[in-house]
Amino acid sequence: MDKTVRACIEVRYEVICRGDEPLEITLSTRFDPDTFERIRDKCEPPPAWTRLEAHRCAHCALQSEHCTHCPAAVAVADLIGPFEEVKSYTEATVCIHTDERIVTSETTVQRALRSLMGLYMATSGCPTLDKLKPMARYHLPFATPGETMFRTASAYLLAQYFLEQRNGAGEFGFEGLRKLYDEIHGINESLANRIRNLSREDAHVNALVMLDLYTHLVPFSLDEDLAELEPLFSAYFANGADGSV
């Protein structure tokens, strides 16, 4: 029996910049419904600065003979043009349209870009950033640090559950998560080095710096922040230490 063809998932960002020269930027992005990798509509070759060997990450596992360009850099490259002339602190109204809802925020261009970069990078095909794809699939724009911590820890533990079901190799502490975010920090630094001199304005680098703050937040805040969340789960402890209900 033929498989039913599933429609692509679409996320649309509408950014209305309120600077000296008002500007409206709309980015409509499609994702594969099964893999949730971003579908690039551009046919031209990626720019030279996205080549794999330019500022390559220390832990990169990709082979240049099979992958000539850094997937994360290619994803970020698609955001350079639309925001090239916009200052990072420019105030903006941002509307994000998904199949499920519309999210609207009065914010700045750099925060909108941070959200877009996170979505694009997690769905770029980078083997390390692929581990953030579950969070990208259930994209939560402009998440607070607390929301980010909750979603990050939950997604990681769900991944460990699936690993445990497959081969018994689940790790239900957070050492693997700390290691992952250390690697993501390296990716962010590499990308910042790639794009620092590309744009006349600073929105891209500042957005990446803001995104990178979360890579520092997660490893160093895990124990303290998760301890603060524990009372919310008290109902699971009411009938014994095994959490049965």
How would you describe this structure to a colleague?
- The chain has 245 residues and is α+β, with helices and mostly antiparallel strands.
- The protein has one domain (9-237).
- Helix content is 41%, strand content 14%.
- It has six helices and five strands, in the order E-E-E-H-E-E-H-H-H-H-H.
- It has helices at 71-80, 109-122, 133-137, 145-167, 175-195, 203-229, and strands spanning 9-17, 23-31, 38-39, 91-97, 102-108.
- A five-stranded antiparallel beta sheet has the order 3-2-1-4-5, covered by helices on one side.
- A hairpin with a 5-residue loop joins strand 1 and strand 2.
- Helix 2 (109-122) packs across helix 6.
- The longest helix has 27 residues, at 203-229.
- The chain starts with 8 loop residues before the first strand and ends in a 16-residue tail after the last helix.
Give the number of helices.
6
Q: What count of domains describes the coordinates?
A: 1
Mean pLDDT: 86
Rg over alpha carbons:
19 Å
Counted beta strands: 5
Question: Spans of 5+ residues with little confidence (pLDDT < 50)?
Answer: none
End-to-end separation in angstroms reads 41 Å
Strand order of the largest sheet: 3-2-1-4-5
Q: Strand fraction band?
A: 5-15%
Report the helical percentage. Answer: 40-55%
Largest sheet: 5 strands, antiparallel
Task: Kindly name the structural category.
Answer: alpha+beta
Shape designation? globular
